[in-house]
Amino acid sequence: MSTHATGSSKNATDYASVEWPLSRRGDVVPAECTRLRAESPIARVRTLTGDDAWLITNYALARQVLEDERFSLRETAAPGVPRQYALTIPPEVVNTMGNINSAGLHQEVLRAFGPKSGPASADWLRERAHELIDAMVEEGPPVDLRGRFAEPYSAAMVCEVLGLPGKDWRRLTSGLDLGFVTSPAVFDGCTANWDKDFAYVLAHVRADRDSRSGLIRRLCELRDDPARDGGALTDEMLAAVVTSLFGAGVMSTYVFLLHAVLTLVRHPEAMRRLREQPELMPGAVEELMRCTLSIGDGLPRIALDDVRVGDVTVRAGELVLVCVEGANFDPEHFDDPERFDIDRASNPHLAFGAGRHFCPASAISRVHAAVALGVLLERLPELRLALPVDQLVWRTGNIKRVPERLHVLW
């Protein structure tokens, strides 16, 4: 067990009286967030692996840690460091963004996921959304919005951006949840899905030049450019980048869509206004990103040096968990944060993180969500849940808060 807090203002054995991880329910903000933010915005917790960590629940400290490069995401994959849970994915997955930055690929990733210059434009996304809803309407309600809309829509976008065959989306998502498992110990086969998908992507990286598209094509062009300065790009590095972006991209976008729909159907007046005034959708998406709970467990960072955070000196080597739902509901930064307000004027939420590891897909994610929600409200004006919200089943043992199914009527 890691206990590196000697010299901190708080004693390392003074654990917050919370069960970690927090509640898996995605429709209720965990009560511990509000209490800790008021009483102890940086608090000691014990993780699933039995390690010590500092849990941050207010906005100011969360932004400080996310923007300070002395707190490393990359080091969370290093051997011997305290963890949230066992590393059930290869270390190179955690290192992907570091690989992108160090290899000079960051701008290419940003360009690929740009909402205007990228292949998955708003018009393209709108066509996909209508196709999926056509099939839903033909079948008739109830349908599971996760399986029939959110997952295939998100997978189609990410495949298009990356240059993977859209027809293979089911194959690529079938074992995706395995990469997001939270476990106290490594288990047999925990990296099996990564190995399978990595091999699939590697074959596309090594395919004939004329068959490549999207980000894969551009990265291969950089790999083959003799004038490129910045170190060798290997096929394996490119495949690791693309495989990681697929998993993170699909999981984040489809889970957010489910949470967004769940929030909207519980606020029918907001749904009515968005149908009548679709120009309000961008602001509504920002508010949905602030107040939905799809991110799940805290964003992890390892301190590279001794750093003062609030009334604690976080020691080098310690684990810090940034609780985004705590920060995004902080009344010091958001007026009446419990209220869902699509007219909220100032909304500097942390749903995409902050600092060096700010999500490179933030722009296209906003377009992805706005288009999907706009088409759903247009085509299914009476959209509603097919069962009471407290009957939803929330996945346990997963990094994100994921409803197993989201059956809807219209």
Note down, in words, how this protein is organized:
The chain is α+β, with helices and mostly antiparallel strands and 410 residues long. 43% of the residues lie in helices and 8% in strands. The strands form 3 sheets. It has a 5-stranded mixed beta sheet. Strand 1 and strand 2 form a beta hairpin. The longest helix has 31 residues. It is globular and about 60 Å long.
Topology:
Blueprint: H1 31-39, E1 42-46, E2 52-56, H2 59-67, E3 71-72, H3 91-94, H4 96-102, H5 106-112, H6 122-139, E4 143-144, H7 145-162, H8 169-173, H9 192-205, H10 214-223, H11 235-265, H12 268-276, H13 281-291, E5 299-303, E6 307-309, E7 312-314, E8 319-322, H14 324-328, H15 362-379, E9 384-385, E10 407-409
Parallel strand pairs: 2-8
Antiparallel strand pairs: 1-2, 3-5, 4-10, 5-8, 6-7, 9-10
Helix pairs in contact: 4-11, 6-7, 6-15, 7-11, 9-11, 10-11, 11-15, 13-15
Protein name: Cytochrome P450
Transmembrane segments: 237-265
Organism: Streptomyces durmitorensis
Structure in a nutshell:
This protein is of the alpha+beta class and 410 residues long. The chain is 43% helix and 8% strand.
- Spell the H/E element sequence: HEEHEHHHHEHHHHHHHEEEEHHEE
The major β-sheet equals: 5 strands, mixed
Helix content: 40-55%
**Strands in their spatial order, largest beta sheet:** 1-2-8-5-3
Which spans of ≥5 residues are poorly predicted at pLDDT below 50? 1-9
* SSE class: alpha+beta
Name of the CATH superfamily: Cytochrome P450
Please tally the helical runs, counting DSSP H or I stretches of 4 or more residues: 15
What's the total count of β strands?
10
**What is the beta-strand fraction?**
5-15%
Q: CATH topology, anyone? A: Cytochrome p450
InterPro entries: Cyt_P450 (IPR001128), Cyt_P450_B (IPR002397), Cyt_P450_CS (IPR017972), Cyt_P450_sf (IPR036396)
Organism: Streptomyces durmitorensis
Keywords: Heme, Iron, Membrane, Metal-binding, Monooxygenase, Oxidoreductase, Transmembrane, Transmembrane helix
Pfam families: p450 (PF00067)
